[in-house]
Amino acid sequence: MENSHWNSLPWFSGKSPLDEENTSVLSPQSSVLNPEVTLIPQPSALCPSVARHLDAPFIGILLGTAVGDSLGLPAEGLSRRRVARLFPGPWRQRFFFGSGMVSDDTEHTVFVAESLLEEPNSPQQFQTRFAGRLRWWLAALPAGVGWATLRAMLKLWLGVSPRHSGVYSAGNGAAMRAAIFGACFASQTERLFQFVQAATKVTHTDTKAQTGALAIARLVELTILTQPVTCPAAIIFQLLASLTDAEDDPEWHKILGKLRLSYEQEATVAHFADTLKLNRGVTGYVYHTVPVAVYAWMHHFRDFRATLEAVLNCGGDTDTVAAIAGALTGATVGPQGIPPEWLSRLRDWPLSIAFLQGLGKALACQKRGEPLPFSVRPAWMTVVALPRNLFFLLVVVFHGIRRLFPPF
Prior knowledge:
By secondary structure, the protein is mainly alpha-helical.
């Protein structure tokens, strides 16, 4: 990549953060909790014109998550072959008469964002706020709840502390809501780790769930700090390898080897999924979901449409994989890079487009130390979505019945 892009940035000091000589911040030898280099100063030190651009990744993450979620929701659980036959033609929202609604992927991301607005400094207090929102969310009878998350929320209702409510699971629930941490704590990697860990342990205790969530958060952090024009593959591979030790987690590093080989061969996203034996669809196992979403983001870098279409065509847990891929790409290209027709067909309440934009702007203002132009909903307010959830459930039942009929 040419260095002219970096010369225009006010914090540029003569060398691109993507130069090979300057990659120690992401080297496998550097601790996740002790980053060696801070690439840019805190946003409060940036000039106003640059600081305003920080709104884009926050809003892009929230809208990207929602769009991916809404596109993939009708196809969730279907094989790759059945997806192609049941949903031919260009990808668009099909949940309810050409419109899209969101599921737990977007809702949990919003809960994380709202809890961060309330408690941006203490991981423990954030964890309590987040757990409270999950508790009330269950009271609103959501139609789709992961098995691990459901058990954790039941434990919360029984009075178990959020520090001990998680269950041993390597599902993708923690990863689907992790992208926003990378934006909120960009250049504050130790705090990023602490908050990701706090959010993960509310529902999942398997270290794989934390690794997957941390991978998504740190990739967003990398994107925001470096603003790459082309995919910084070498740094991405170093960052992902640094998350765990090869001896402690050989599975993760074996997957990274396949990811690197597929990227070097310019293989399709479907071909990479095949290397993980996911030819029938991407599962909810975090070490399936996260690598496929990351590979699609890298392979179709800065192309929101191509990235999401690639993961949706893989079948399986389409809404979550697309939500994560949408968050990564949304952080990279901002809301302006999301196809307008996909945004216009996203119609939901209370998590509307306007709500998500306001929430993203509030997070960016908090990052800059400005007054919040947003009133955070109290945790119990999630219960007001009960009528919406009942309607959502009826539509889900309709889709379930529809799947009983051709084409197979």
